[in-house]
TrEMBL record:
This is Glucose/arabinose dehydrogenase, beta-propeller fold. It comes from Pseudomonas orientalis. Keywords: Signal. The keyword Phosphoprotein does not apply. Residues 59-277, 321-428 form the Pyrroloquinoline quinone-dependent pyranose dehydrogenase beta-propeller domain. Residues 1-20 form the signal peptide. InterPro entries: 6-blade_b-propeller_TolB-like, Beta-prop_PDH, Quinoprot_gluc/sorb_DH_b-prop. SUPFAM superfamilies: Soluble quinoprotein glucose dehydrogenase (SSF50952). The keyword Signal applies. It holds the Pfam family TrAA12.
Amino acid sequence: MKTTRTLTLLSAALLLTACGGEGDKTQAHGPDPKLPAQQSSLLPSMKIAEPAAWGDQKPKVPEGYSITAIATDLAIPRQTLVLPNGDILVAEGRGGSAAKLKPKDVIASLIKAEGNTKVKSGNRITLLRDADGDGTYELKTVFADNLNAPYGLAYADGKLYVANQDALVRFDYADGQTKASGAPVKVTDLPAQINHHWTKSLAVSEDGRQLYVGIGSNSNITERGMEVEIDRAMVWQIDAATGAHRPYATGLRNPTALTIQPGSGQLWTVVNERDELGPDLVPDYLSSVREGAFYGWPYSYWGQNVDPRAQPQNPAKVASAIKPDYSLGSHVAALGVDFSIPAMGEKFADGVFVGEHGSWNRDNPVGYKVIFVPFSNGKPAGEPVDFATGFRGDDGKTRGRPVGVTVDPKGALIIADDLANTVWRVTRNQ
């Protein structure tokens, strides 16, 4: 009976998806997006990603650049880190254990699962090495395993930090090391109850003394109650030496990636905003993370636009909510961010790369690509530029889904693809 009911609900969702009717509206980008009216329905708009193999295809990059798969057959690669000697670490895994609350949650989870890899979670970190610098990473070896859905990675002062879904841990690291020399040391526990949004993003300050962990909410819009949102939807600042932590910024629904701006030391993030207010609400965003700031969740979005679903409301918090810096468009699911360097070429020298995993809460899919957001005077300036596309083809098939993006000081962009279980490397042609 339960199976029949689930299949009936799924059929209804698929019918709703097929009917469409919303049109492919232009996504609003930039610092002042025009926000449409809120929409509500019995079921949110949904679109299956329809995975397919790459075969002899690969992502498309701008003229003058080339893209190569440097590692395949991974176990859900999420985020990457380039070590001082040029080795690349890849965090592999999947976490979360949130129960479904309503029939629509069951439907949405089935829809989303169809667009994800069926590979088992690796729960490990893999090391890639190109010993002779020819662009071929001939060594692929497990650096550390038996981890708990590792996601965020950072390195400073001989310490490798890993954000598991339940704790921030560290390893001692010596240059050239290919395997962890022992078990990880816990720096501090991280919120792990339910883990609706399980990913824990990570960045380290330029002096190595402070760590920043992004912790997502335990719901879309407080449907599990505020008690399970304690210490969530925020960025923690953690003392690297002691593990002491405090809220650094709050009201960030799901800060999925963090990065430090070179020179200024300013922390930046990409955030996945709330669902089920329509295909063009609410914009996911790129923003500087201001110490002590409140970014709206759950009471409001994009500043002080009230979300009536969050009950009881809190007018004082809404009044204090600030706007993010830059809209990426609604439901693009940005999961990676890193600052560029001049070695990436004149057009892509100043700005950030963003990995967009792709939408599910929209009839006309968006995301499924890596974009470049140009900066001027330390801030986003202008329209985003497509950098790596073709993850979702014109045939409607999805061959890859970008997650983490990391700029290699050699002048390359590393892209983790958790659908194809591949790590890609984009370089300028010489």
